[in-house]
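seq as requested:
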Amino acid sequence: MITWQHLLKGLLTIVLLNIFLLSTVQAQEINSKVASVKQQPWQDMIQTQPVYKGVFNQNLRQAVLNKLTLPKISAEDLEDKTKLLALLQPRLQELDKELSKYVRVSERVSRFEQLKRLMPALYNINERNLIEGLLKKQGVSVPRMRNSRLVRFIDKRISLLANGLIFNMKALVRERRDYEPELLRAMASKGIRFSALPPDFILDYSLVEKTSEKEGQWLFDAHISLLGKYEIPIVEVSENISENATSLEQAQSKSVDLLASKVVEKLKEYLVKRT
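struct tokens:
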């Protein structure tokens, strides 16, 4: 005997199934309109992008390129210049309109804060450059946009900021440590320099040796952080490090190089993260 509870359960199952099917169709429609940067022809265009000066600057730009979503282009679209322009021009216009708001990023705030506020513009500029590059490659005349002149201005400003980030040491860790010069050199090699000028970050770190039962192996409790305003951590790393080395000094040097790599990588991830 079919009760009203059975009917209600059946109706609920049908409703949930329809919702699932609808969400699946919508997801497929969205995916059909955008493509991963790993798909052709965008991957070909990415290979032609310039290499920028500055290690940290170049790494930021590559990370942004890897995170872009772009209009899906078929082989048929590429063969038809009119169709290709009709497909990509609305997106170019949208990007152009959006770009003007980044001119208002104030230079009164810190260099790091300026860079953080300009990072969405880097997504905008990279996508725009790829679209315009593809149009040119296919022999399509790129329409001039109202804010075209801002692209180079904002792009240059981002490079200056990314290449100009500096740090100072937290006062309490400035006592002499044999491996501190190695840490400063490691940070500089990754694009963040030490300076006595007003810094973007205060660097705090510790490297505490632990007992190892294996000869030639050195263990450390390690921590490093880049502090911002009011010494609040922007990014930090805490790890147990194991290094094989012929001496404690060599192990310390290798450990601080690893710490520098990890904290700069965290800083890059922090900046390129899309909210």
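Residues 19-33 have pLDDT under 50 and may be disordered.
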